[in-house]
User: Fold this.
Amino acid sequence: MSESISRQKRFRFAGSAGLNNVRQGDIHALAFSDASFDAVICSSVLYHQWVTDLDSALREMRRVLRPGGLLLINVPAFRFLHSVHDKAVMTARRFRKSEIRKLLLNQNFTIQRLTYWTTLLFPLAVAARTLGGSEMGRDFETKEPSLLQRVFAQIMALELRLLRGISFPFGVALLAVARK
Assistant:
C-alpha cells in the first residue's frame, strides 16, 4: 500500500473517531507557532525511520512548548527486541535510557521522570520476539478479547500503579516526562 493511501486511511479513521482537528506534519518542522502548547505528547514517533534527525525533532517540540511546558515521550526500548513487528512499522531505532536522557539534556529539557515500562510482561515479549512467537508482526495475536488479553490488561494495570512510586530498570518501552 502506498504511503499516501495509508495516510488517507489514518485521517478517515481519525474522522470516524470524532477527531476533527487532526493535522499531518513533519516532526522536524512543526506547523505551529513558538510557545503554542502547555504539553506535547510524542508517543511512538521518534523510533520511526522517517525521523532522520532526533535532535531536530526534540528542538521542534521544545520550540512549540510554552515556558514550563511538559513533554511526554514514549519509545520502544532495547535493540535486541527488534522483531517482525518493528519491520512492519518501519522502526529505525530502539532506545536505552541513556540515549533519551542525552537527547533531552542536549535540548535543555529538565527531566522529571525517565523509566522503562511494560516491565512485568518483558519476559513474554522477549520470548515472543526472539523465539519467533510472532509471525504477523504482533507479539500476541488474537482476534477478539481473550482471557489472555484480560490477564495482560490486569498485569499492565498493576504495573501502572507501581510506576507511581518506582522506576523500572528494564522494559519493552521507555517513558520520559520532561519540562521546558
Notes: Helices lie at 3-16, 54-64, 84-88, 97-106, 122-130, 147-163.
